[in-house]
Write a structure and sequence with these properties.
Elements: E1 12-14, E2 19-22, H1 26-35, E3 38-42, E4 45-48, H2 49-54, H3 57-71, E5 76-77, H4 79-86, E6 98-102, E7 114-118, E8 126-129, E9 132-135, H5 137-147, H6 150-161, H7 174-184, H8 187-199, H9 207-218, E10 225-231, E11 237-244, E12 249-253, H10 257-260, H11 262-265, H12 270-286, E13 290-294, H13 297-300, H14 302-311
Parallel strand pairs: 5-9, 6-7, 12-13
Antiparallel strand pairs: 1-2, 2-4, 3-4, 5-6, 8-9, 10-11, 11-12
Helix pairs in contact: 4-5, 5-6, 5-7, 5-8, 6-8, 6-9, 7-8
Length: 327
């Protein structure tokens, strides 16, 4: 975050400079609004309209967080807003309001674009990053688990536990979360937090894999192994999303990102990524495994995922469930 300089501008750059917020004088604001070249992030803080339109829901929310922190002194960002700031993934859109944490009796209250959560907040649970006071990653996960959906909480905890995808400045472990839940969460909400922590696993690489694993558990199917290593005959290794070695069955979640986003493609083109995935699957089949795949539609309609898995021999011990219920 840049400080307000002599020119009266506040630059808030993040996510590869995709969104830049500007504080300008009233005449400049009115002119930019009329011309459609700026959108308001918060009173006195504006962003380029073109960049705002192309920004993701998470990027927009982070812009709102930075704008609130720049215009309200001493606030502490928490809950889903802190999760966005730390880079935790979420299924669906991020909230429209910036989530703040204040101690009981502080006199703080919610207002337009901001929601205040009044809860006990020890100093150890707050850190400062680039001038923004924010709850620690572990405290953030605890707060999301007690206030949001269990699915969202497990998605974020899975991400935090996986060092291959999570690049926080500190590590987060299940044991730490359990201890923090015991210290910070009262009887009300504790069962929700413990359920989310207990359902988390090291190995899920993205929200779709977490969602699929939770559905597999609901179906009463055997728990799959995650990220099982296989030798690539051409060098290196393959890692499978889900695997039942005793059944010689491999399950793969295919999100569109795998074939479209640069961070997944690396140096490959989308077409090359498809070919590489086909070769990978052929190698896995030659080892004697059956390989099945599903996409997000198999998660939104769980009966489809259940049918895919039972068709290749994954047993289900419970009655068929017609839909996924987000706790």
């Amino acid at each position: 975050m840049d400080h307000v300089g002599a020119a009266g501008r506040l630059h808030l750059d993040f996510a590869g400079d995709r969104v830049r917020a500007l504080r300008m004088d009233d005449r400049s604001l009115r002119r930019s609004q009329k011309q459609g070249s700026a959108v308001r992030v918060r009173r006195g803080v504006y962003a380029s309209a073109a960049e705002w339109r192309s920004a993701s829901s998470c990027d927009r929310h982070i812009a709102q967080i930075i704008a609130v922190a720049a215009t309200r002194h001493g606030v502490v960002v928490g809950y889903e807003s802190a999760a966005a700031f730390w880079g935790f993934p979420r299924l669906g859109h991020w909230p429209s309001e910036v989530q703040l944490v204040s101690r009981p009796g502080s006199g703080a209250h919610s207002r337009a674009g901001v929601r205040e959560h009044r809860v006990a907040l020890p100093d150890d649970d707050v850190v400062e990053v680039d001038g923004i006071r924010i709850t620690t990653p572990a405290r953030t996960l605890i707060d999301v688990a007690r206030s949001g959906s269990t699915l969202d909480a497990v998605v974020m905890i899975d991400h935090a536990l996986n060092p291959m995808v999570c690049h926080l400045p500190v590590t987060v472990e299940q044991r730490e979360l359990l201890e923090l839940a015991g210290d910070r969460v009262g009887r009300r909400g504790r069962s929700r937090v413990l359920a989310a922590i207990g359902a988390s696993r090291v190995g899920s690489a993205n929200p779709g894999e977490t969602w699929g694993r939770l559905l597999i558990e609901r179906f009463g199917m055997p728990e799959p192994c995650l990220q099982v290593q296989h030798v690539n005959p051409r060098g290196g290794f393959y890692y499978t999303d889900f695997e039942w070695p005793e059944l010689s069955i491999i399950g793969e979640f295919d999100g569109r990102s795998k074939y479209l986003k640069p961070e997944y493609l690396g140096a490959l083109t989308p077409g090359e990524a498809v070919v590489a995935e086909k070769i990978r699957e052929d190698h896995l089949r030659l080892e004697g495994s059956r390989v099945v795949r599903w996409m997000f539609d198999g998660l939104r309609d769980p009966s489809r995922l259940r049918d895919i898995l039972t068709a290749v021999g994954v047993p289900a011990r419970r009655a068929r469930e017609s839909h996924a219920r987000r706790a």
